[in-house]
Amino acid sequence: MRVDAFDFDLPPERIALRPARPRDAARMLVVAGSAMTDAGVRDLPQWLRPGDCLVFNDTRVIPAQLEGRRGDARIGATLHKRTDLRRWQAFVRNAKRLRIGETVDFGAGVSALAEDRLADGSFILFFPGDEPVELLLERAGTMPLPPYIAGKRATDDADRSDYQTMFAQKDGAVAAPTAALHFTPDLLAALGAAGIESETLTLHVGAGTFLPVKADDTEDHVMHAEWGVIDAATADRLNAVRARGNRVIAVGTTSLRLLESAAGEDGVIRPFEGDTAIFITPGYRFRAIDGLMTNFHLPRSTLFMLVSALMGLETMQAAYAHAIAGGYRFYSYGDSSLLLPQR
Questions:
Q1: Which residues pair with 65 in a beta bridge?
Q2: Cross-referenced NCBIfam families, in alphabetical order (predicted)?
Q3: Among 31, 35, 90, 176, which residue is least crowded by beta carbons within 10 Å?
Q4: CA distance to 25, 109, 174, per residue, from 131 (Å)
Q5: Distances 221 to 80, 124, 254, 304, 312 between C-alpha atoms, Å
Q6: Region label for 274, one of left (φ > 0), alpha (ψ between -120 and 50) or beta (otherwise)
């Protein structure tokens, strides 16, 4: 499909620069089939059925944004994907001033060697020493806020907690699974009281999630791979949810993409560990999920393509027009939507 089919006009003032406080005070647009209802995140229990299961991503965002120098050149690096214990793939700003074999000093006793440059222009950075790279990043790095936020204000200490979900346990993401930013212990307790189950999986979200689609046709776009894991016990429990007639609801496009990567043509979710570069566009047949809770996404983005595949392009264009007109807040720190397709 043509990428411009997924374009829409978004007023800049609709972009949220801070999250709702408390987190579960955010608004939520429910799209069930083609019907739309204005609600709030705290209303989520009434939109689900006892026995339904929400699936969360327990990845933890690391301070993967680095600013340093190579000689007199300022070099910025956004770590994208771990390749081994001391090496990360990174998008580099001012890359023309960095050559293979040169070292970037990021301050606080942290440096990295540019070992290789890949076909997509990213670098392999090697962090020497004995300290775990995670500790080095805690000293020298900042939270990698999306460019549509970072371009409007500086990252600050509040973002270290704001840009982390309550489920965050496993270090490795360079972008938050933002749909779950809305959850609080109180909301989770209300869901449990209503008989709603929950499961977790891990997908380490990469910086590629922010990259624009530069191709004119979706067939020409190449997704960046991200690493994820679903263990056998979790897969069995999720399959049991659907076998008894209840629904699996992915919380966030990251959870959805990993579930769909792990499911076979028969709709059975299997244990999974490894990279996924799944790219979901209209025409895709969903196998593992029955609904999605997600924030509002960028025009022409792979994530708007994904929700259009789930609900239909016309439905999502109408839903986004409704959200814009109704003052919903967009993107990572914005409001939420609950998408329940007709099956």
A1: 78, 142
A2: PRK00147.1 (NF001140), queA (TIGR00113)
A3: 35
A4: 40, 11, 20
A5: 18, 22, 18, 14, 20
A6: left
Separation CA 214–CA 169 (nearest Å): 34
Tokens 């970072």 sit at which residue?
150
The C-alpha atoms of residue 289 and residue 165 are separated, in whole angstroms, by: 21
Report the percentage of the chain scoring pLDDT > 90: 91
H or E stretch covering 236:
helix 232-243
Burial 315-341 (b: 16+ CB within 10 A, else e): bbbebbeebbeeebbbbbbbbbbbbbb
CATH 2.40.10.240 fits 65-141, yes or no: yes
The ranges of the chain with pLDDT < 70 are 208-211
- At residue 287, the pLDDT reads 97
Dig out the tokens for 57 from the structure.
């991503």
Contacts of 165 (CB under 8 A, 6+ apart): 56, 57, 176, 177, 180, 181, 183
Of 130, 129, 133, give the one whose Cα is nearest residue 141: 133
Strand order in the sheet with 53-57: 35-40, 27-32, 336-340, 291-295, 248-251, 53-57, 197-203, 226-230, 272-276
| pLDDT tens-digit readout, 65-111 | 999 999 999 999 999 889 999 999 999 999 999 999 999 999 999 99
Give Dmax over CA atoms of the chain in angstroms.
64
Residue with tokens 């839903």, as numbered in its chain: 319
How far is residue 40's CA from residue 278's CA, in Å, rounded to a whole number?
30
- Check residue 15 and give its pLDDT: 96
Task: Spell out the domain ranges in the chain.
Answer: 3-61+162-340, 65-141
pTM: 0.93
- With residue 135 as reference, give the H or E element that holds it: helix 133-140
Residue for token digits 């979706």? 218
